[in-house]
Amino acid sequence: MEEVKERAISLPRLGEPAPAFEAATTHGVLRLEDFKGGWLIIFSHPADFTPVCTTEFIAFAEIYPELQKRGVELLGLSVDSVSSHIAWVRNIEEKTGVKIPFPVIADLSKEVSLAYGMIHPGQSKTETVRCVFIIDPNQIVRTILYYPLTTGRNMDEILRIVDALQTTDKNAVATPANWRPGDMVVVPPPNTQEMAEERVKQGYECVDWYLCKKKL
Amino acid sequence: MACISPDGKPTESGIKMMRALQLGMGSPEKIAKEVGVPLFKARSSLRELTQAGLAVEEDNKYELTEEGAKLI
């Protein structure tokens, strides 16, 4: 029975609306809709006062100014209580001098965790794994990352994805492997033979008609 | 950053929000700028003030109630 229940848990999908929620956080009660109009990264961690999560919270706090420059807010989550979150973020500040500037959801009921598919029973039946959901200003899920309990997240990659998504939205282009801001971007492939023939004359840097790059 | 404390009184950030509202009806965007907080915080705080009867909302514009005005 338990197994059937676990299989029934749905995960959000890319390109679909992020699941709505109202949740108690370290900054008061917040709803998903409060973030509408801006980018949002929701990330879950297994538990407060644990070593890898502490390094991640410090790292998220460190990239927060960079995220703000890009119009992105951060929202943490675990199934701990608000009091536990408050005690933990105060402890982080006291021990490391790093202030945690973003709110953290206290998802004791697991409502948000289940809606976002953050509990993976194969890893832990009681804790959330390390998820990252990048949600755009229309509240559409644009990126989902899952990390196991034992692996701390890479903040450079999170920033890189935000830059790539924003570049894509602004310029109607795609970004190649290992792209970094300033690198050439990929021009969307042509849909017709005529467009393919025109494409190679347009002055892009082309390997062939289906792989052309340009500078922004 | 909740703007109403458990005893029902506005917190420091609640008072800031209410002072901004005292200047006139405002949208969450305007209030966020005025107070210098992210938009999500302005939206959640304004909702909280409204639920506490200290502000009212009409067409996404907020203003203080009489009760709210008395507290600042």
Task: Give keywords.
heterodimer, A: 216 residues, alpha+beta, Glutaredoxin, Antioxidant, Horf6, Chain A, domain 2, 2 domains, five-stranded mixed β-sheet, three-stranded antiparallel β-sheet, 10 strands, B: 72 residues, mainly alpha, Arc Repressor Mutant, subunit A, two-stranded antiparallel sheet, globular
Describe it for me?
The complex is a heterodimer of chains A (216) and B (72). Chain A has 216 residues and is α+β, with helices and mostly antiparallel strands. Chain A has two domains: 2-153, 3-Layer(aba) Sandwich (Glutaredoxin); 172-214, Antioxidant, Horf6, Chain A, domain 2 (2-Layer Sandwich). Helices cover 32% and strands 22% of the residues of chain A. Chain A starts with a helix and ends with a strand. The mean pLDDT of chain A is 93. Chain B has 72 residues and is mostly helical. Chain B is 51% helix and 11% strand. Chain B is built from four helices and two strands. In chain B, strands 1-2 form a two-stranded antiparallel ribbon. In chain B, β1 (55-58) and β2 (61-64) form a beta hairpin. Chain A binds chain B through residues 26-31, 33-35, 37-38, 73, 103, and chain B through 1-3, 38-41, 43-45, 47-48.
